[in-house]
Amino acid sequence: MVVKIRLARFGRTNSPFYNIVVAHARTARNSHPLEVIGTYDPVPKADTYDKSGKLHKDIKLDVTRARYWVGVGAQPTDTVWRLLSLVGIIEPKHRTPPKFQPPPSAAPAAAQEV
Amino acid sequence: MPPRIRSSQALLLNGCSSPLLSSFTPSHTVAAAAGAAQTTRQCPPSQHTQTSYFSTTAPLELTRLRRDFETWLRTQGKRYRDPTPGEPCRYLGNTKQFSPKGKVFPLNPEFISQPVLSESAREKIWRSVMVDAQPLKAVSAKYSVDMRRVAAVLRLKAIEKQWEQEGKQMALPYAKSVLEMVPVNHLTPERPHEPINDIHVHGYTMQQIFLPTSESREFTRADAAKAFGEHILPVDQKMRIPELLAFEKDLVKGEERRTAEENFYEATTKSERDIADRELIKSQLEEKRKLRVDTDRFEFRFEQISVDKAGRKGRSRSAVGWRYGVPYNDRRRGVVKIPTSVE
Question: Do B297 and A55 touch (CB under 8 A)?
Fold first, then answer.
């Protein structure tokens, strides 16, 4: 049976909280997993004394175990793939396209012509 | 809709059908006419006191009670209306015997309020810690104010100063009147605010123990604590400011007070620095376990944990994440859910 690395939703209504688990693919979402390798809190939070407005998300992860499970063929779901790729355990599935930047000389030159 | 006529006025109009009276007659004329009619025809008198914007009835003149009250407000009651600052309590009743300071509720003489720190005292504490950079313990010992109270004063003062800077309006009249009611301490050296050496008495130390020891053995407070239980701390360690012990010992040894004070100041400074260092190392270790990945929208903070914490059966309390097969009592009734700490 396929072993997956996936999220199991806990928490309450409107305040999700996930366990990052290693489980058999056919088992129920919140059933007892093979192993809990971490948690993921999807609610972005602000630092108390930080006025910049930048938010952060807290993740706990046993990186060694995650590496091991990926090494023996466990298949991360898309969300977990994204998280694991942030730490560099696997290559990112979707590479974010580089942002479009207008060529530096074009805009001022056009403005001058008009 | 027909114009409404008040019942008593209607009665008046019906009872005394005088050609003078009409619904457009000004009210005082009505009253006068009614008075005249009363003498001659025994009409019920008008008894209005209420005047609405649509009513033409004049209000009655002040009643005697009302008049007396106004007179009282001008004479005896002036002190209640425009109080002199510094007067302890202003309550009606037995005004000859004003309640002394501390008795905030005159009807409950058993309740005596503890003195609170005055505005100047709080400013003094804030200045000595934040401006003169004195250690918290030294300030606490100097003014005989509990460490926790000193810390609370600092926190509140920080907010107060911030609000002042932001130009927020503060409820100063409220604070002023509350401080007038309760006894206030201005923190003078001759009047200590509160005892600062109180220690928590552990239940284990309340028992009587017969402990045979050899006569030659030196039995200290630490040994006594051990006798009560392995985890019981001796009194010297339970004090909030244990440096005061060394200070007193210095004095007993015959040191000059000035030297002893200097030693005490040094010791408290060192202890404060140690605590700060310990906290710094702790936060550095915590930071070391964290990996921050910045993306466009959020910063992802990965904390390295170990799955071994789950124990052999995987059900340990220290395991990471939501636990399986165990009730999570965060919404249980009767449990206080107010957070106990502020980040």
Answer: yes
Q: Where are the domains of chain B?
A: 8-48, 85-199, 203-288
Q: Find the residue in A nearest to B301 (Cα).
A: A58
Which residue from B337, B164, B2, B294 is spatially nearest to A86, judged by alpha carbons? B294
Domain edges within chain A: 3-87
Reported as a pLDDT band with limits 50, 70 and 90, residue B192 is confident
Contact list in A for residue B305 (CB cut-off 8 A) is 38, 60-62
Residues of chain A found within 8 Å of residue B324, distances taken between Cβ atoms: 32-33
Asked if A20 and A61 count as a contact pair (C-beta separation under 8 A), the reply is: yes
d(CA B263, CA B259): 6
B319 CB near a chain A CB, below 8 Å?
yes
Is the distance from CB of A54 to CB of A35 less than 8 angstroms?
no
Tell whether pTM > 0.80.
no
d(CA A50, CA B129): 25
List pLDDT tens digits, range B13-43: 343 333 333 344 344 444 444 444 444 444 4
Backbone torsion region of residue B83, taken as left when φ is above 0, otherwise alpha when ψ lies between -120 and 50, otherwise beta = beta
Confidence of residue B280 (pLDDT cuts 50, 70, 90): very high
Mean pLDDT of B272-282: 96
Q: CATH homologous superfamily of domain A3-87?
A: Ribosomal protein S16 (3.30.1320.10)
Say if B299 is an interface residue toward chain A (CB within 8 Å): yes
Residues of A in contact with B320 (CB under 8 A): 36, 38-39, 60, 62
